[in-house]
Design a protein that fits this description.
Elements (H helix, E strand, L loop, with lengths): L5 E6 L15 E2 L2 E2 H10 L5 E5 L4 H7 L7 E5 L7 H11 L4 E6 L7 H8 L7 E6 L2 E2 L3 E5 L3 H9 L14 E4 L1 H7 L12 H29 L1
Parallel strand pairs: 1-4, 1-6, 4-5, 7-10
Antiparallel strand pairs: 2-3, 6-9, 7-8, 7-9
Helix pairs in contact: 3-5
């Protein structure tokens, strides 16, 4: 478990434009997606904040009731709806110095990778994966020191997650390091469309088959 200097922030306040269902209600592996993500993060963090629009408070409050005080719902601050606003809302409400940010539509989090990233963040304000030229800002650590920079760009009307990075110290996690913990790069897979959801279910099916094959092989070797 990561120390109390850390918390996790789940963004669940998106507009959900390309799916006919609320992302937080999607099923994955027999579990509601946001609940699956929360359970995974609770193995690492004592505190999880879910940033969500107030009209979803009732549904998510009932869904997260079983987790008690470990999970807290946080309302998005006023402003243009975007992930950067969600990060800002989460950082303002977080009790921790370092915060792991993730979207509510990312079903394949790898706890080993997250733990490794946490051990890097004390040297920087942001630890963010980099795949080729692309960054993964919705699977990254942000310190509370990011708040002034995020506030500045939001006031300027900028919405891109990376727009405040020039104002903070950033450490990049490159592909070679990521592959040690996630050779397929599925940590960053997110569900935006029905096709993404179908692909996620296929990935899940193959992973379960591989797990079954490994377990069966162990039994066969013993007997």
């Amino acid at each position: 478990m990561i120390t109390t200097n850390f918390a996790a922030i789940i963004l669940a306040g998106g507009e959900n434009l390309r799916l006919p269902y609320l992302k937080a209600k999607l099923l994955m592996g027999g579990e509601i997606l946001i609940k699956r993500i929360t359970l995974s993060l609770l193995s690492l963090f004592d505190d999880i904040l879910i940033v969500v629009d107030e009209d979803k408070f009732d549904y998510l409050g009932k869904l997260m009731y079983r987790f008690g005080n470990s999970v807290k719902l946080v309302s998005d601050v006023v402003g243009p709806k975007c992930p950067l606003r969600g990060l800002y809302s989460g950082l303002l409400s977080s009790p921790a110095r370092f915060n792991f940010l993730v979207g509510c539509d990312m079903p394949f989090l790898q706890t080993g990778l997250i733990d490794y990233m946490a051990r890097r963040v004390s040297r920087a304000d942001v630890v963010i994966p980099r795949i080729g030229k692309f960054l993964e800002p919705l699977h990254a650590f942000y310190s509370s020191r990011c708040i002034p920079g995020v506030e500045k760009v939001l006031k300027e009307g900028r919405k891109k997650m990376v727009s405040f990075l020039p104002y903070v110290k950033v450490e990049y996690l490159d592909e070679e390091e990521i592959a040690i913990f996630d050779s397929q790069g599925i940590s960053f897979f997110n569900i935006n469309t029905i096709d993404d959801w179908k692909k996620a279910m296929e990935i899940e099916r193959k992973r379960r088959e591989q797990l079954y094959e490994r377990e069966y092989s162990q039994v066969a070797n013993i007997t």
